[in-house]
């Protein structure tokens, strides 16, 4: 049983519109370019593929893409764009669901690994990625850096977006690393719709340890898809871990 929230049909139908900013070329194109370069033409596997925001343009670059997605309604939305033979998707959680074959690239974007709300599941997600990678393949995670430094004493929430159409706030539990994103959307009729999603935040160093447990080595960490250097002030990171090129040889040599 996964700890992730399950996106229902109503949420899936609104997803692309509510996430329109993430489809903008200046946001999406650098991500696709970055991932295409790492895939090197080989097959790619996306965890939490959603409605295909990244997978569809990546496949259009000639890279075979397979997906894993927990929410059937999200897959139904993807199917309105591309058929199963063009972009196969397995319905299940990204910690334990497997698909046939090996991949030169496995990736999970836009903070989605945080949807797994226990450390054990997140560790297993790294292991699942490693098991799907061919020797020398790479696992890529796009993730925000928890905004805990922005908490003054007594504050319980951190805003991550404030516009005339959308106000978003994150609340954190510093003991359990559990958090909730709260969204307030102003609709066309002037009313406000509230929604929320739960997550477990992960520090970059914690990600590196999870990767080591899965037999992966950090190869690169940048602040964004454009390759901006990652610093102590960065609010997000794109991290790349690599499976050893001789991983199969090492496995066969074990007693």
From TrEMBL:
<dbReference type="GO" id="GO:0008168">
    <property type="term" value="F:methyltransferase activity"/>
</dbReference>
<dbReference type="InterPro" id="IPR029063">
    <property type="entry name" value="SAM-dependent_MTases_sf"/>
</dbReference>
<dbReference type="InterPro" id="IPR041698">
    <property type="entry name" value="Methyltransf_25"/>
</dbReference>
<dbReference type="GO" id="GO:0032259">
    <property type="term" value="P:methylation"/>
</dbReference>
<feature type="region of interest" description="Disordered">
    <location>
        <begin position="230"/>
        <end position="255"/>
    </location>
</feature>
<feature type="compositionally biased region" description="Basic and acidic residues">
    <location>
        <begin position="243"/>
        <end position="255"/>
    </location>
</feature>
<keyword id="KW-0808">Transferase</keyword>
<protein>
    <submittedName>
        <fullName>Methyltransferase domain-containing protein</fullName>
    </submittedName>
</protein>
<feature type="domain" description="Methyltransferase">
    <location>
        <begin position="45"/>
        <end position="137"/>
    </location>
</feature>
<keyword id="KW-0489">Methyltransferase</keyword>
<dbReference type="Pfam" id="PF13649">
    <property type="entry name" value="Methyltransf_25"/>
</dbReference>
């Amino acid at each position: 049983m996964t700890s992730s929230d399950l996106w229902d049909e109503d949420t899936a139908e609104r997803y692309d519109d509510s996430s329109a900013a993430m489809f903008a070329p200046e946001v999406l194109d650098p991500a696709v370019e970055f991932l295409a370069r790492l895939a090197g033409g080989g097959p790619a596997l996306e965890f939490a593929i959603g409605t295909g925001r990244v997978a569809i343009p990546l496949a259009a670059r000639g890279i075979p893409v397979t997906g894993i997605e927990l929410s059937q309604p999200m897959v139904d939305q993807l199917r309105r764009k591309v058929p199963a033979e063009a972009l196969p998707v397995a319905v299940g959680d990204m910690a334990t669901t497997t698909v046939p074959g090996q991949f030169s690239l496995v990736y999970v974007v836009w903070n989605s690994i945080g949807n797994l709300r226990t450390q054990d599941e997140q560790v297993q997600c790294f292991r699942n990625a490693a098991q799907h990678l061919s020797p020398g393949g790479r696992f890529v995670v796009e993730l925000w850096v928890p905004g805990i430094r922005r908490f003054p004493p007594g504050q319980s929430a951190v805003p991550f977006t404030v516009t005339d159409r959308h106000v978003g706030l994150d609340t954190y539990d510093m003991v359990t690393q559990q958090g909730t994103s709260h969204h307030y959307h102003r609709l066309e009729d002037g009313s406000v719709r509230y929604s929320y999603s739960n997550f477990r935040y992960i520090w970059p160093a914690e990600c590196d340890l999870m990767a080591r447990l899965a037999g992966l080595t950090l190869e690169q960490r940048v602040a964004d898809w454009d390759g901006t250097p990652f610093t102590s002030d960065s609010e997000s990171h794109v991290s790349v871990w690599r499976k050893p090129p001789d991983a199969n040889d090492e496995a066969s040599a074990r007693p």
